[in-house]
Amino acid sequence: MEPLRSIDRLSLNQITTDRLNMSEAVEACVRAEVPWIALWRHKVAEAGLAESKRLVRDAGLRVSSLCRGGYFPAATATERKKRMDDNRRAVEEAAELGTDVLVLVCGPAPDRDIDFARKTVEEAIAELAPFARSHGVKLGIEPLHPMYAAERSVINTLAQANTLAEQHDPQDVGVVVDAFHVWWDPELYGQIERARGRILGFHVSDWVVPVPDLLMGRGMMGDGVIELRRMRHAVEVAGYTGAIEVEIFNRQVWDMPGDEALALIKERYLQHV
Amino acid sequence: MEPLRSIDRLSLNQITTDRLNMSEAVEACVRAEVPWIALWRHKVAEAGLAESKRLVRDAGLRVSSLCRGGYFPAATATERKKRMDDNRRAVEEAAELGTDVLVLVCGPAPDRDIDFARKTVEEAIAELAPFARSHGVKLGIEPLHPMYAAERSVINTLAQANTLAEQHDPQDVGVVVDAFHVWWDPELYGQIERARGRILGFHVSDWVVPVPDLLMGRGMMGDGVIELRRMRHAVEVAGYTGAIEVEIFNRQVWDMPGDEALALIKERYLQHV
């Protein structure tokens, strides 16, 4: 498996440099010649939608995805409707920011009934998909690691995400493969192949041993046990040649100066992805 | 789904009251009229094998399982052989202690090659099974939560455990269903049904929100989101009517006086399992 020879597919997922505001993150990408950025809604809201769009466009950056829609299951019909309204706004923001991928973190169950919550997710995606299509935006279902099943998403395997996505046209709904969430899965490579034509994103970080923290414990590529190059190769064989987002929730990375973080990311990306 | 009407299937997994030594744990069970106990090898070693056997037998307790064999993958052939020798001793100890179930926590990979480690586990179980059979001991493959894939076990779903077990006679190799490890799995109930005739144990605790700690964060039944009664019903429908082990890694439970912990366990067991 060949290493990547350039950073032309590298995308900085904005959460990786969470201490930088929109303008600082954009400038850091430009200085580092990182051509892609993945935006988070809270950062966009902070800078303003129009200003975020201007900053990114003027810098010549491409937006690989907007993170995130989802959080569909809720205890009441009123709350579910509110979440759906918010998802429609997320679709509009994605379109406005010039990306065709809205990443879905589907949300936890409001109670013990995980099956019902999964059904709710299925229905919500079916409801959102036509709206997204009309805005030229695809919904990327990102399965989250099973350790987040109770708090962040009831969609926990690529098999589940594929089954959901396959109910829709590949132009409308696909999956996002995040190495940190799926690396442990004994079905991983079969499910990546199954996702052919539907992979809307590939995210990298690493699983360090021992895990320092449930949420903030993601490692820099190369610091952990994930076979990142093998996985990158597999998504390519399955037809994905788009941006590769570096998405690391890690306080040490957050505490690094932006330029330093980006230099390290570029180095590790070429070495390990 | 009917609640349990008695504690006649309740087993104290010894790790739940980790601060008690063998004699104290046995006495606490007797006082609480808990009829079963699940033993851990480090506790058995501490008390001595013969003395552990005597204590348990004199108290009239039944041993639901011995925890644990496994940890098969290793970096060198020498180390793998050492682990296999240790597993044979674990089988002998299980037989000596009067239980026919040795729980297998299969172990992590020594490097990034998780597929190879999984193959090693398969081969090791095939090697160990005839020895276990000759001692009247069954091997219970316990899938561990995917968050332990890098540090404790490369067997992370019930589907995987079933596939491994099905290579053997149901009299020799089966699976152990621990609610904490498998509750999130979208395939769970289908895989419990698939395990019919091979379920060698059912362990309960709970998944609390937010998760306080990766290893020590298991909750008391009823304090979390797991549908314990539904799962207990499913394993019964699949033919399992044996002991139900309460296995909780939780410092607060460890810090409770033994009698108090057992009183709470009995109460929650009848309420939630």
UniProtKB/TrEMBL annotation, chains A, B:
Keyword S-adenosyl-L-methionine: no
GO molecular function, one term: isomerase activity
InterPro entries registered for this protein in UniProt: IolE/XylAMocC-like (IPR050312), Xyl_isomerase-like_sf (IPR036237), Xyl_isomerase-like_TIM-brl (IPR013022)
Source organism, top-level taxon: Bacteria
Identification of the protein by name: Xylose isomerase
Organism: Paenibacillus apis
Keyword Hydrolase in annotation: no
Keywords attached to this entry: Isomerase
Span of domain Xylose isomerase-like TIM barrel: 40-261
